[in-house]
Amino acid sequence: MVISKKTEPHNALKTLLAVQELRQKEHFLGLILDQIHQSLNLDEILETTVESVRLFLECDRVVIYRFLEDGRGIIEKESVAAGCSPMLGKIIDDPCFLNTNIIEPYKQDFINLIDDVETPDLNKCNTELLRKFQVKASMVLPILINQKEEKQSTDKTTWGLIIAHQCTHNRQWPILDTDLLKRLATQTAIAIQKAELFHSLEQRNQKLEKIAYIDILTGVSNRRYFQEKLDQEWKRLKRDDGSMSVIMVDVDYFKHYNDTYGHQEGDKCLQQVAQAISVAVKRPGDFVARYGGEEFVVVLPNTPIEGALKVAENITREIEALEIPHTTSAVSNWVTSSLGVASSNCSAESNPEMLLQAADMALYNAKKAGRNQVQTSKSADVVGVNLKVKSTATLSTAQVFEWAKSSRKRVAKLSCSQWLNPDKFLGYTNWKRASMNIGRLQRKIVNLNQDTLHNLINYLANKYGKFVIDNLNVSGMFRCTT
Fold it and tell me: For residues 449 and 110, which has the higher predicted lDDT (pLDDT)?
């Protein structure tokens, strides 16, 4: 056999070009896989896949076909050239999948190559479907997903197909391209499975988070969420120089209701009341929470006292409209509610705790005045007064309460680094009536630290309802001397 000397260099050049082309495609495939595996977003993964495959094959259309539970399929993603009919979002009722076992070979990594859809031996149902979408030639690769989460599992299901179409002319699909795309399909399947697992975990976490912040009985927010949301909203409104209103809601004579109708009916009552409050609170930024027992709280960002009063009145109407019988109530034959409303500018002179205490005091006044009504706090109820002391100063107890007396304010929060004698405390505040009521406490406790003192003051404030809420802020070292 004689080999032409001219043929040898020609064949070597063809081999060299083929190797270079293979290297380029291998490099391109590597870039595609890197991009796919960098994302846990299913939509991004599928978008990258169709765009990259169409660029890789230089074909007219590439789609991701996902199988549905009823045997049909949907075109989940598409990259299509101009002049080629789009298929995105279409539900494909492919008779080949329904009437034959054509899907089974795909589970064994079968690649379906059609160079010419008019080939006589081609399945008739295939031909009709491809003609419908102007297809002249097609390549189909399966996307196989492990049925179990274990990596070693060999059980696979056909999640979907990567389909390439040539719409303008017939085409032969090189074996080299199919081998590379088979690797791409395998890695795409892995990325899809990771993305779906991540999405599933996200959903579970969202459900758990929802459970953690929802009151199980009533379905509204719980106290934990309320406290976090209240602080967040206050900080936001403080930056924007906004205001906030709070409504405290208490079901009237609920203990009597439980005693009369039983705890199961009591639970149903609270569920209905929570729903009624939610109906009355309509703005997206407002929120309702169960504060504890039969008490609920409503937070209304950027709502003046007038607007809060209207919401409170709507709440009372919604609860009364439930017409839940309550024969042991002293104010009505139906379940009713008492409400306390307070409003404040979100500024450095106030804080959310002070606002909440003001609303709670208004609720206390509503209950004291006979229940089944709305009461508002006075504007002075939410006032912050700062007393700044130099860092090395020593301030006597007399001086602290002399300041309180001269400013006609009562101290509701005091930070003290030493012990404070309750006799001195009660003497300077001149709470004779209070002194009589806490005589036993006075005899038992010789000295009060700052926490005990704070609790004592809160007790007196709640007991007698005569207090303006003040903060005594001290910059640096502050010592109370007796």
Answer: 110
